[in-house]
Structure formats: structure tokens, C-alpha cells
Q: What sequence folds into this?
């Protein structure tokens, strides 16, 4: 298909360049209710996204316009030609600053190998199912329902500057709902685990943790009204919290002025009392579904240092946006690694605290720094005992808390994120439920 | 102007009929959904322009078969006269291999055969200005004029994004007894200002949507000044003091509550999984007697209005809550079979590549008798809540989380001018819905954004209703 599209592109003389991003995906999908399979699905699809670039001048200014559209495998040659014509016409009105396309030069990046390549996808069904249900052994609770998605992908990226790279990878997702019932009503929690290699212990641990958290939620009391209590974020919300720093360092945020952070600035402010942030981006992180050797433009990716002790070392981004900022391109890298902090989790729990581990949907606004979420499970330590709590919400702004923030030494991995298991925040607001 | 049925789907009918007949030799039930959605997304900002496919674009097929015990599906997007035998072989080989592995290793739920009544029907929607009537140059020019208008509103504006997407949906469903086809158009547009004063940055957005096309750009233009001024107002906003308050929800927030607080909880695939508290409340009060709630593909004309769903079930208008009492839920085909109920036409797929789940369509509270002015006058102390950001469901335990942009303080029946932002509304669904004490005569639906099942399976829905007065916990 790619060769056919390229030959048709050559007919159109208005086009200054092109990019083709092709993926072929095979998948197996299973849908369970309790421990029984309710439906199975399979998928074999091919997608080819064509981007056309047109250079033009208007009132003595130079522009590089682009427009993209999918070329479906069921398209006739005539339909592909019409799409190319439509794209080149559209691109000639897209007035963007001129930027280069990535060219053939560059290193050969590392490719992460998955153990899922050892046999056909459907043959993984028994093993993965067994891993999902191994910890589902209790009378009072367990897995209510689960969904498994297992994909084998091959990607090829070709452009008019000589890039022609390809790679294969795997991604899997297990989404599960766990429940628990004590004397009161049954309660549930939601979790999804993404992986690029099959590691049964990872699934055992995640599912055991969720069942345990469900049990704690079933016994939880309403979150009390608490003023100025140190807050610990643990587990999944920590990943969302750190998205702010990722976004603030991206070239597109800087170019669009959503971020005012400059290289050399300390993102945590001037007077840092707590731990200082050190962040790297690693495009070949093990067991991340976002690990790729090249970004979507075919640019080869390698590890970079983003922040050191809170100071922004460099912006990162695509060839286009790095060109706009007049910096060396890094390509778009998704995997983020936060260094551990100065204290063990046990040291963060010496004084009264509210530890929050599950939310309905904890959200960080990466532009404004506001964060909030409804509490589904937390632990309140009043100095004497620890009780599980639920309900109410947290809200705050990262700019008000990150100069006095502590990170645990212990690290966690959640797909494309490696970072502290727990962070301690002072200054966030809690809306409790009880008087 | 009428929407146009996809020529590709029209041309594919003979091949699809052959595929159906051949698969029927191996399977007792076979259906095929063919989708061809084409749309273009235009984005104009202070810093650049973008023209690309709509995120809703798709062209492909999903085959559903009864495998002897329950249902299996196969999604694919390569099919033509030359490769049809290969595709048939791929489908049967893949599904039979999976079936063998599954039966040898797993416990499987049983489903009966789907019984269908013969029907052949077609639906073609209409819009005021078809996407083909205005070319890309004119659309971008109109958006550029809007951008220039925005830049003049305030020097505190640091970025302004205008996004407009038009979508032409065509679907064809065939099975042993059914042949259904539909084509309609919906569009959505967004205005996103970012404003800054010193080191304080605020963003805002205003969405527009509907069974419309290019005419949406005029609606968007009329909102430019307001959306920027509202963003600037947020620069002076204060954090809210957490607590229980009397609130008035704008129709947009009412829609978010309808959707998150109750809509997800009555999706009947949740009943099948024993994940819905609502199953124990059928026939009981779950809300104030003032509340009546509908959902359905033909309950309203908005972005989720269609003739048939992605399982070939005709759309309905379902009364979910009547005068505060829970009447029924909404359901997809397989859930209804499992529960022994009638499917309501709510089986929707994120795309041909995904499973069908029970999903909302157009979901709303019906209007009441009060005016907004009466509602404001009645408030001793509280907030008018505006600007939806997001929400999250909790069908099992009826918790609610709504992230909102702004609360306008009301004291002794008058606005004080104080604005709080952002606001998170949380609580227990029956408490919130039972506390509704006034409902306005207004009615508006909102079809912006996308609805997920958990954190995936995004589909188009609309929701809304009137202004409602209630009590809620804000933080």
C-alpha cells in the first residue's frame, strides 16, 4: 500500500513533502464477568495516515502547510488520488511557520523486546487468564469483571526526506473491577494495568492490592473535616500529579506560551524546603506500552535529562516545535522517570496525615497547576491509630505545594511512569464529609 | 441539505451479503456492522493552523457470530471482491481457534440465539449547510477572522484556540433478517482562551455542537467575547471554602449530573455484572418528585440521535425516572437478553474495532415550572455553578465527582460578584437528586466532548436539561 501511495503522491506537483505512518494490528480481546468468559473478540486492522506538506508564500512570508488523512485499505486508486488532492489543497491554506522534516541521519535506537513475541496472541489466553484470577480467592470479595486486550503492532514510518523505519511492539491492558462486602453494602474499585511484556507477578500484585484496598474501603468511615493536615498521595494519583512538570517542559507548551518556564528556571520556585525534582525521559523504558525507538515523525529517540534538582535542563518535543524554539530536537518521548526523594515512606508517616490512594478521577490541569479529585479511599492517621476513609475531595494548586513537597525513596512503575510511590504535600485543601 | 450515504458502503453491499451468507454456513447467527465515518478537524490558534481527520473517522467492519455457546466478534478493515475468500477464511479460522483455546481452558457464559424480526429501513439526516458547500479555504478564513476578533478582546490573552470538526456518519447493518442503513452529520466546535496576569494562568472553554455542520461556526463566533471575559474573571477568582452549599446548576451542569450521577448507573450491562446499585431501586424514589429523566436516540435531536444502534436495534425514547421514581434502565442487545428485558437501542461502539456496550445517547431532565430569577431570589447563600470540565461515574456506590469551572456567589437572593474556581462537586447521588427543590422552564442539550466507559470506549453523547436548585458538597 505504501508504495502505491508514494507513486500517486509523485503525480501531484504542488506537494513539497509527505509523511506516511502505517500500523498493522492484530488483537485478542476477552471480556469476563466474575470468572466466566462473556465474549471474545479478535481484530486484524491496517491503518495508514498520510500527511502532505505544501510550501507557499503569501505577502513575502514563507509558510509550510500540512494536512493529514487516513488512506483506508479499501480505497481505490481514484479515491486515494482524490484524498491527495484534497490534502494538498487544504495544506496550501495552513499558514504555519516553516520547519524541517526529519531526515535520514541519526542513530539506530534501542528496541525493547517483549516476551509476548514468543507465541501467537491467542495462545497467551490461558496463562494471562490464570494470572488475572490467581489472587481472586476470597469469599467476601474479588474480581467482579475483567477485560483483557492484547495487541501486536507493526509500525512503519516513511517520509519524503528518506526516513524509512519500522518496528514491532506489543501492548496489553487488563481492566478489572474488584469488590468487597462486609456488613454494609458491597463496594467496588476500578483499575487498569497496561503492560508490554507479560509478567504474571505484576498482575498478581496489582490485583491483590486492589482486593485489599476494596476490603479497606468496605470498612471506611466518611473522610473527616481536616484543616492543614499533611497529605500523602500514594499510587496512581502520583503519576497524574507529575504530568504538570512534563507538560511545562514540552516544546509545544513553550511555543504556544502555555508554559512560561525557561531553561535554567527552577520549576519549584526559589525557596525549596522539601525534595528537589529530578526527571528524565526514557523512550525505551522496560514494560511501557509507550516505549518506541522512533517518534511519530520517524525521529530516533534516546534518553534525556529534563529537570535536575528542580531546574529545567531542556525542553523536549518534535522536530517541528524544537525548530521553532531553535533548540536541538529530542523527538516526542512519553516515558517519564522521577528520581526518588530523601525519605522512606515510613519516615513520611511519623506525624498525623491523610494518605489518599484511590480517587474517582484525580486530575491535574497541566496549564494552571490546579488539581482535584473525589476521594474513594484514604487512610487517616490522627497520631494514635489509622482508619480507612472515603468521600470528600482534595483540591489545590501545585504552585502552592511543590516547594515543600517530599518524595518517597521507594519507587513504583505504572506503565510509562516510574516515580515515587508516595509524595507528601502541605497546603492542599480537603473537603471532608463529617462535621 | 441532506446527508449523503457513503458510496463505499453502498458499493460494498453485494460483498457484505456474500460474506454474511458464507458465514451463516458455519454459524447459526451472523450480523455485520459496516461503518464509514468521514470528517475533518480544523484548528486555528494564535501560533498555528492544523487540518486533519476527525477523531471519529473510521471505515471498517465488525462481524458478530454465535459460536455455539455465546457470541464472538471479528473486526477488520480490508475487504474487496478479490480478497473476500481470504477474509472469510481468516474470520472462521481465527474465531474457531480462539473458541477451541477458550473451551479447553475457561468457563464460558451461555447466551441464546438472537431472534430478529424482518426489517429493512433507511434514515438520512439533514443539516443547514452541508460540509461540502463551503471549502477549506473559506472555513479557515472564517476561523481566522474569529481569531482576530478574539485577539482584540484583551491583552491578557496569551493563547486562543478555535477548533471545529464536522463528521459525516454512515452505517450499514445486515443480518439474516435485517438490513438497516443511516447517514447523518454532527459537528462540534470549541473556543479555548488562555489568559495570564503575572504568574497566574487560567484557561476556559466554550463548546458548541449538534446535528449541524458549517452553521456551527456562526454560533461559535457569537461566544468569543464571553468566553474570554469569563476566563479573565477567573484570574480574580478565589478557592472555595469546602462545605455543603445550596446550589443552582446551569443546564450544562445539570447535564453533567444527569449523565454522571444517574445515567452511567442505569446502563444495564452494569446490571448484568451486578455493578449497579440502581437494580435494587426499580419502582422506588431515587430523586425529588420534580425529576423526570429521559434517554434515547429518538428522545431528542442532538449528536447521539440515530435510527439504529451498533447492534441493529432501533432507537427509542426511554423514561428512566418518572416523577422521582426509577422506572427502568437503558440497555444493549446482549444485556437485555441476559436480563429478559427489551433492548432500548443503546448498544454503541467506540468504533468498528471495539465491543458494543450499553451507552447513553441523549440524556436529560425535563423542564419544570420555575424561572431562573425565582431560583436565584430563593437562595439565602450559595452558588450558581457554570462551566463543565469533567465527571466520573460510580454506578456501584453512587458517589459522584463533577469538576466545574466556576461558582458565582449568591447571598440573600443576589449575586455578590465573587467568583470561586475551580469547583469540585461530590456527594451521594440519591442525596443530591432528592435535594432538588426547584427546576426552571429552560431546556438545553450539550453534545461536546466524549463519554468514556471507565477510562476508555469513548462515544458521542448529549446531555442537559433545565436549571436545577439543589444542595451539594463543594470543594
A:
Amino acid at each position: 500500500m505504501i508504495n502505491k501511495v508514494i507513486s500517486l503522491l509523485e503525480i501531484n506537483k504542488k506537494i513539497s513533502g509527505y509523511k506516511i505512518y502505517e500500523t498493522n494490528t492484530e488483537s485478542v480481546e476477552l471480556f469476563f464477568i466474575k470468572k466466566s468468559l462473556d465474549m471474545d473478540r479478535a481484530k486484524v486492522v491496517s491503518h495508514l495516515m498520510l500527511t502532505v506538506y505544501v510550501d507557499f508564500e503569501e505577502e513575502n512570508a514563507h509558510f509550510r502547510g500540512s494536512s493529514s488523512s487516513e488512506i483506508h485499505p479499501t480505497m481505490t486508486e481514484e479515491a486515494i488520488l482524490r484524498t491527495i488532492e484534497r490534502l494538498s489543497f487544504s495544506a496550501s491554506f495552513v499558514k504555519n511557520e516553516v520547519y524541517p522534516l526529519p531526515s535520514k541521519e541519526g542513530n539506530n535506537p534501542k528496541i525493547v523486546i517483549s516476551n509476548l513475541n514468543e507465541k501467537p496472541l491467542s495462545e497467551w489466553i490461558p496463562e494471562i487468564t490464570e494470572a488475572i484470577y490467581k489472587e481472586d480467592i476470597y469469599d467476601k470479595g474479588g474480581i467482579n469483571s475483567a477485560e483483557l486486550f492484547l495487541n501486536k503492532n507493526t509500525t512503519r514510518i516513511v517520509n519524503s526526506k528518506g526516513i524509512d523505519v519500522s518496528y514491532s511492539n506489543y501492548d496489553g491492558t487488563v481492566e478489572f473491577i474488584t469488590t468487597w462486602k462486609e456488613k454494609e453494602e458491597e463496594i467496588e474499585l476500578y483499575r487498569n494495568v497496561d503492560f508490554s511484556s507479560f509478567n504474571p507477578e505484576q498482575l498478581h500484585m496489582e490485583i491483590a492490592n486492589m482486593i485489599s484496598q476494596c476490603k479497606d474501603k468496605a470498612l471506611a468511615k466518611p473522610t473527616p473535616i481536616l484543616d492543614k493536615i499533611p497529605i500523602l498521595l500514594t499510587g496512581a494519583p502520583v503519576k497524574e500529579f507529575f504530568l504538570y512538570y512534563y507538560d511545562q517542559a514540552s516544546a509545544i507548551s513553550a511555543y504556544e506560551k502555555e508554559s512560561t518556564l525557561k531553561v535554567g528556571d527552577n520549576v519549584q520556585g526559589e525557596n525549596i524546603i522539601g525534595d528537589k525534582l529530578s526527571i528524565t525521559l526514557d523512550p525505551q523504558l522496560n514494560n511501557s506500552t509507550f516505549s518506541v525507538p522512533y517518534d511519530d515523525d520517524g525521529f530516533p529517540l534516546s534518553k534525556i535529562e529534563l529537570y535536575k534538582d528542580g531546574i529545567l535542563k531542556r525542553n523536549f518535543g518534535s522536530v517541528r516545535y524544537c525548530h521553532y524554539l531553535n533548540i536541538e530536537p529530542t523527538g516526542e518521548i512519553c516515558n517519564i522517570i522521577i528520581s526518588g526523594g530523601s525519605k522512606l515512606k515510613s519516615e513520611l508517616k511519623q506525624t498525623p496525615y491523610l494518605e489518599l490512594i484511590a480517587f474517582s478521577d484525580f486530575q491535574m490541569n497541566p496549564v494552571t497547576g490546579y488539581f482535584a479529585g473525589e476521594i474513594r479511599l484514604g487512610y487517616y492517621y490522627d497520631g494514635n491509630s489509622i482508619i480507612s476513609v472515603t468521600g470528600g475531595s482534595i483540591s489545590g494548586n501545585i504552585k502552592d505545594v511543590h516547594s515543600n513537597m517530599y518524595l518517597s525513596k521507594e519507587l513504583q512503575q505504572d506503565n510509562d511512569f516510574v516515580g515515587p510511590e508516595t509524595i507528601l504535600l502541605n497546603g492542599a485543601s480537603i473537603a471532608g464529609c463529617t462535621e | 441539505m441532506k446527508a449523503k450515504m457513503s458510496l463505499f458502503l453502498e458499493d460494498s453491499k453485494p460483498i457484505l451479503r456474500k460474506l454474511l451468507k458464507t458465514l451463516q454456513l458455519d454459524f447459526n447467527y451472523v450480523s455485520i456492522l459496516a461503518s464509514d465515518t468521514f470528517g475533518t478537524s480544523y484548528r486555528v490558534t494564535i501560533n498555528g493552523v492544523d487540518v486533519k481527520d476527525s477523531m471519529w473517522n473510521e471505515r471498517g467492519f465488525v462481524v458478530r457470530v454465535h459460536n455455539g455457546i455465546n457470541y464472538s466478534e471479528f473486526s477488520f478493515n480490508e475487504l474487496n471482491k478479490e480478497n473476500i475468500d481470504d477474509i472469510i477464511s481468516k474470520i472462521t479460522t481465527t474465531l474457531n481457534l480462539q473458541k477451541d483455546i477458550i473451551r479447553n481452558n475457561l468457563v464460558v457464559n451461555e447466551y441464546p440465539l438472537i431472534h430478529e424480526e424482518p426489517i429493512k429501513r433507511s434514515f438520512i439526516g439533514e443539516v443547514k449547510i452541508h460540509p461540502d458547500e463551503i471549502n477549506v479555504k473559506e472555513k479557515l478564513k472564517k476561523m481566522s477572522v474569529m481569531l482576530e476578533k478574539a485577539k482584540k478582546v484583551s491583552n491578557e490573552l496569551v493563547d486562543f484556540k478555535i477548533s471545529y470538526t464536522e463528521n459525516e456518519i454512515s452505517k450499514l447493518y445486515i443480518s439474516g433478517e435485517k438490513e438497516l442503513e443511516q447517514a447523518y452529520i454532527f459537528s462540534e466546535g470549541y473556543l479555548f482562551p488562555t489568559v495570564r496576569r503575572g504568574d497566574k494562568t487560567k484557561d476556559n472553554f466554550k463548546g458548541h455542537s449538534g446535528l449541524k455542520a458549517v452553521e456551527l461556526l456562526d454560533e461559535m463566533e457569537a461566544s468569543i467575547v464571553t468566553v474570554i471575559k469569563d476566563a479573565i474573571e477567573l484570574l480574580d477568582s478565589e478557592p472555595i471554602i469546602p462545605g455543603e452549599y445550596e446550589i443552582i446548576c446551569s443546564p450544562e451542569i445539570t447535564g453533567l449530573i444527569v449523565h454522571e450521577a444517574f445515567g452511567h448507573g442505569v446502563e444495564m450491562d452494569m446490571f448484568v455484572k451486578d455493578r449497579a446499585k440502581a437494580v435494587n431501586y426499580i419502582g422506588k424514589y431515587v430523586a425529588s418528585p420534580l425529576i423526570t429523566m429521559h434517554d434515547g436516540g429518538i428522545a431528542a435531536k442532538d449528536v447521539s440521535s440515530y435510527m439504529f444502534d451498533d447492534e441493529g436495534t432501533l432507537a427509542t425514547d426511554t423514561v428512566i425516572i418518572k416523577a422521582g421514581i426509577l422506572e427502568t434502565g437503558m440497555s444493549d442487545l446482549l444485556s437485555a437478553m441476559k436480563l429478559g428485558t427489551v433492548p432500548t437501542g443503546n448498544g454503541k461502539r467506540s468504533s468498528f474495532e471495539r465491543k458494543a456496550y450499553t451507552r447513553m445517547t441523549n440524556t436529560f431532565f425535563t423542564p419544570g415550572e420555575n424561572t431562573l430569577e425565582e431560583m436565584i431570589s430563593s437562595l439565602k447563600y450559595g452558588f450558581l455553578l457554570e462551566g463543565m470540565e469533567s465527571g466520573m461515574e460510580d454506578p456501584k456506590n453512587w458517589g459522584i465527582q463533577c469538576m466545574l469551572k466556576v461558582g458565582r456567589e449568591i447571598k440573600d437572593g443576589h449575586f455578590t460578584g465573587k467568583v470561586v474556581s475551580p469547583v469540585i462537586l461530590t456527594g451521594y447521588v440519591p442525596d443530591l437528586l432528592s435535594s432538588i427543590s426547584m427546576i426552571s422552564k429552560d431546556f438545553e442539550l450539550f453534545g461536546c466532548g466524549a463519554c468514556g466507559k471507565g477510562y476508555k470506549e469513548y462515544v458521542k453523547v448529549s446531555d442537559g436539561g433545565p436549571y436545577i436548585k439543589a444542595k451539594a458538597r463543594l470543594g
About this structure: Chain A has nine helices and 22 strands. Residues 16 and 54 of chain A are 5 Å apart (CA to CA). Chain A has two domains: 2-217, 220-431. The first strand of chain A starts at residue 17 and ends at 33.
